[in-house]
Design brief:
Layout (H helix, E strand, L loop, with lengths): L22 E4 L11 E6 L21 H7 L4 E4 L19 H17 L9 E7 L1 H12 L6 E5 L6 H9 L3 E2 H4 L1 H4 L8 E3 L3 H8 L7 H10 L3 E2 H6 L13 E5 L37 E5 L35 H16 L2
Parallel strand pairs: 2-3, 2-4, 4-5, 5-9, 9-10
Antiparallel strand pairs: 1-3, 6-7, 7-8
Helix pairs in contact: 2-3
Protein name: AB hydrolase-1 domain-containing protein
Pfam families: Abhydrolase_6 (PF12697)
InterPro entries: AB_hydrolase_1 (IPR000073), AB_hydrolase_fold (IPR029058)
Length: 347
């Protein structure tokens, strides 16, 4: 039996709705703002809300990309996707809360940023920054409204869908209200809002042990956000050739990424002209002014090896599986990402 056919309407339909979307505009306060007209547009992936970009680990602020950006003098705007965080949670999770709807919302918010509809400020230069499914949306924006983005930064992304398909199985996605009854008991969420079944299934897909603090993993598990079945089914359909996008493109994907590299971002055919899986993203951008890839492979985790001589404490280690912002080397990755952002903004 075709499972999705039992629930999805067979023909495309026009959807006209008004949704309540929660977002946060952050402008640097204690440092010199590089340019008031510049903004980073942040879109999070599955399993998170927009706090992925302002990840809170007790006792430190170093896992917050928003804070790193602010310290460098850059403003950011992030929002909770439909069905996550403080944004609205529609009950029709098949025909309403799916990838095309998310892309329409992302487009509308981008228009508002450019037109002064958020914070009363018109942003003339915008760098789209995504993570995972958020990167899928940013990539789609660069194809459908290429004139509205000045640069594209895709974190946790590639054109490879093998791991994404495995994610549906290995994540063991289950009804959110059953997995986290205390969290969602008063939410009235339909059974089609899903989360990973257990800490082990979440860890397999998003985390690379032991290169993250336990406090970060616990924080994410406590705040994991639901995803609808329709988003899981339709997310990969958004990716398309961005033939008219002429700005720079930068891909940042951990060497051990599961959904987009299936654990090895260097597993390319022997006769390939590409050195890594993320490099194939360039095929989507034939007119890009510049294309670059960063595969984080090192971290300085002294605390992991307290019993070793300090001269041996800094080792070459794989960085992350998929939740890049919550691994030890996030601060180093942020500086690399912000280096790209600075080049786009000309600062």
């Amino acid at each position: 039996m075709n499972f999705t056919q039992e629930y999805e309407k067979p023909d495309k339909q026009q959807l006209s709705r008004t949704y309540s979307i929660s977002g946060t505009l952050c402008t640097p306060k204690d440092v010199q703002l590089k340019d008031v007209d510049n903004i980073q547009y942040l879109i999070h992936g599955i399993g998170f809300d927009s706090s992925y970009w302002d990840f809170a680990v007790p006792g430190t602020d170093e896992y917050s990309y928003v804070s790193a950006a602010a310290a460098a003098g850059y403003s950011t705007f992030r929002y909770d996707r439909l069905g996550t965080g403080l944004s609205e949670h529609p009950s029709d999770t098949y025909n309403e809360v799916q990838a095309p709807t998310d892309l329409a919302i992302a487009t509308k918010l981008l228009e508002m940023l450019k037109g002064g509809g958020i914070g009363g400020q018109q942003f003339s230069k915008v760098v789209g920054v995504g993570h995972s499914y958020g990167s899928v949306q940013v990539q789609a924006l660069s194809a459908t409204v290429p004139h509205m983005l000045d640069g594209v930064l895709l974190q946790g992304f590639s054109m490879n869908s093998t791991g994404q398909e495995q994610l549906l199985v290995s994540g063991a996605y289950s009804t959110a209200t059953q997995v986290f009854p205390s969290r969602f008991k008063d939410s009235n969420l339909p059974s089609t809002y899903l989360v990973t079944l257990a800490p082990q299934t979440q860890q397999l897909n998003f985390w690379y042990f032991p290169y993250y603090p336990d406090t970060a993993f616990a924080r994410n598990r406590e705040t994991e956000q639901p995803v609808t079945q329709a988003v899981l089914f339709t997310q990969s359909r958004l990716m398309q050739n961005a033939t008219e996008f002429t700005g720079p493109v930068h891909v940042v994907t951990g060497a051990e990424d599961w959904p987009f590299c299936f654990l090895d971002c260097y597993a390319v055919p022997a006769d390939s002209t590409r050195k890594s899986i993320p490099e194939y993203v360039q095929d989507l951008y034939p007119a890009a002014s510049d294309f670059s890839v960063y595969i984080p492979a090192n971290t300085g985790c002294v605390s992991l090896f307290p019993h070793l001589d300090m001269r041996l404490a800094y080792l070459s280690l794989p960085i992350a599986r998929h939740a890049v912002n919550a691994h030890y080397s996030a601060p180093q990755v942020y500086q690399e990402m912000l280096g790209f952002v600075g080049k786009v903004f000309g600062t």
